[in-house]
Design brief:
Among the domains are: 101-144, no CATH class; 159-263, Helix Hairpins (Orthogonal Bundle), CATH 1.10.287. It is 66% helix and 0% strand. It has helices at residues 35-41, 44-57, 63-66, 71-82, 85-120, 133-144, 146-157, 159-183, 188-192, 197-208, 218-223, 228-280, 290-297. Pfam families: Ion_trans.
Length: 310
């Protein structure tokens, strides 16, 4: 069995059996324990092996760096940058720790505001200042964690469809509120509950969530039993039709965005593999030489399931 081009940490072997691209078949190339080192400093076969391993999990060097004309130089600077990744981990730890320390700071702030209001301020303190720091911490963590960024991108892709559904719900609520206000204007319902269009809009919005059902239409029901048909029909349309429609539209939009992301990930994986094969393609053809492909990619990386066949 041939020695893999990229080994695990703590491997006993120090050198591999890969050839360099210049045809020096007898020279043994140095093995690397890190994928980034193989991409930045390895031979073209080791770079190709690392790129195939990169295509498996999709975590590593961005596709834009691979397509750069100065790929090797850009890759070295990129991997120098990610060596400071532990600083980002410390930042995340500090942000999480601040959430626990914030309670103590808020108690101190409340005591300070109370003393200021009792002894120094000529007027009473009627409101608390707007605090932006907690929202900045949430945004910072979201932009730092890769999985959270993918979720935000998925939600951003659904934003247009969500606005359409929200506009439909708002139009239904406005029309139903206007109809209720006109219908019960000269009744006990209009004198006690639907006193204005704004009040009617608010009550119908709460009825949309069934929080005030059936209290909101009790005066109309006492006046006429047939008045309950309007509210029953409204609840049926709002709760059992419109909310299900919103759920179905949002779910379909989510599936569409998820499928789009999967297609983009496959496109990135294909681009990385094309870059890997172009590194070992001596004849600049559409596919690499079969024997060379098998020899160099047989044990590409530890745990990699992607194999190259003749």
């Amino acid at each position: 069995m041939e020695t893999p081009l990229i080994t695990e940490e703590g491997s006993s072997s120090a050198y591999g059996g890969g050839e360099d691209g210049a045809g020096n078949g007898g020279r043994r190339s140095k093995q690397f324990h890190r994928r980034s080192d193989a991409i930045a400093y390895g031979t073209r076969y080791q770079k190709a092996a690392a790129l195939v391993d990169l295509a498996e999990d999709g975590v590593g060097i961005p596709e834009e760096v691979l397509n750069d004309t100065t790929f090797e130089r850009a890759a070295k600077f990129y991997f120098i940058f990610i060596r400071f990744d532990f600083l980002w981990s410390l930042n995340l730890f500090a942000l999480v720790l601040l959430n626990f320390l914030e309670v103590i700071f808020l108690v101190i702030l409340a005591c300070d505001a109370l003393i200021y209001a009792l002894y120094l301020s000529p007027v009473s303190v009627t409101f608390l200042p707007f605090r932006l720091a907690p929202y900045i911490r949430v945004a910072f963590i979201t932009l730092t964690v890769r999985e959270l960024r993918m979720c935000i991108l998925t939600l951003a892709g659904m934003f247009g469809m969500y606005l359409n559904v929200l506009a439909l719900s708002l139009l239904f609520l406005l029309f139903a509120s206007w109809l209720a206000y006109v219908t019960f204007e000269d009744t006990q319902q209009g004198w006690t509950v639907f006193t204005s269009y704004g009040a009617t809009l608010y009550q119908m919005f709460v009825l949309f969530t069934t929080s005030n059902n059936p209290d909101v239409w009790i005066p109309a029901y006492k006046n006429s039993r047939w008045s309950s048909l309007f509210f029953v029909l409204y609840v049926l349309l709002a709760v059992y039709f419109l909310t299900n429609l919103i759920l179905a539209v949002v779910y379909e939009s989510f599936k569409g965005q998820l499928a789009k992301q999967i297609v983009e990930m496959d496109s990135v994986r294909k681009s990385i593999l094309e870059k890997a094969f172009s590194l070992i393609d001596n004849y600049f053809s559409d596919m690499a030489v079969g024997l060379s492909c098998v020899a160099q990619f047989n044990d590409v990386a530890v745990g990699s399931k992607l194999r190259c066949s003749v």
